[in-house]
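Sample pair:
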Amino acid sequence: MLPVDDALAQILAAMAPLPTEWLPLDRAHGRILAQDLTAPRDQPPQAISAMDGYAVRAADLAAGEARLRLIGTAPAGGRFAGTVGPGETVRIFTGGPLPDGADAVALQENASPEADGVRLLGRIEPGTFVRRQGLDIAAGALGLAGGTRLGARALGLAAALDQAWLPVRRQPRVGVLATGDELVRPGGAFDRDQIASSNSVALSAMVQLWGGQPVDLGILPDQVAATAALVPELRALDLVVTTGGASVGERDLVRQVLGEHGLELAFWQLAMRPGKPVLFGRLNGVPLLGLPGNPVSACVCAILFLRPAMLALQGADPSPPLVPAVLGRALGANDRREEYLRASASWQADGRLEVVPAERQDSAMLATLARADCLIKRPALAPAMPVGSQVQVIPLAGLGLHV
């Protein structure tokens, strides 16, 4: 059986970033930036005031008090045209350009207006309450790196960089296919031997969450002809993800039938729990990821393999977020398969993150995954671990998978 890291490396090697498209700023939320954005000019473009007050020469306040002649005003967006000379000041407001000759701003709280001027109290150093030119970002400097997901903060920065249109990766079109005669769409009529299909719903939501366009391919019955007939529909997709049908049973037809219709298999079966029967290959050039049918296995494998594949297609960092934690319940020794355990998490008074694995980890128990906060990652052949042992976890909230 193939180790998880080796399987992931093969999947990522098959994912070339998709082409670039340009979107207006107000339609780019959640998309992946396709190239670096640099600052076209200094921000701020000139020295400006950080407070409401008076633009002054710091030397005029060296004695701790001065009466200065008021010669003008500098509001935001409105430069004072003259020059501040000795004994002079300009009323300035937050964001107002610092006048020539001035090198600091005295707070209005320390000012007492007089007939034709103002009395200021307190010594002041050059640069006080002044935002220098280029303080935020200098012209030509990197503003946003390619591969950045464009959330609200990134879009705000893009706007500040005067970018009305943004280059983003095209969203991957991901086909989602469930297999098995036992499955019925939620809300449909089914008998006592059938169950509602949950994998397609969860996987489609994940595809959308991670920046793709899910394409519902329905539920494939356990029939050779139906499996073969599906092949032409997959050519227009960027990635296909299936659930079920990839194991060794007589009715597990995905690997068998698709292999007869162009599937070039890269690997099948991984040394992991849950999720041993995972396959990956190319079907007539289209990457195909076959996940297990058990719902927890399908979701965990989607986190480990589908998410990185989709991010790689969009030119983004596919690494999962891993954070340290301590065990709140002891674990026995692990076997030769890497393990991913559903767990609850809470911050302790000492600042440590404590995780408590669910008592039952059956791969059909979707309710435990829906209530979990994280997955505990355990290496193969890990020894028994008492309470307080250090572990690595994948926070589900960090993947956007909030409860």
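The chain is about 15% helix and 30% strand.
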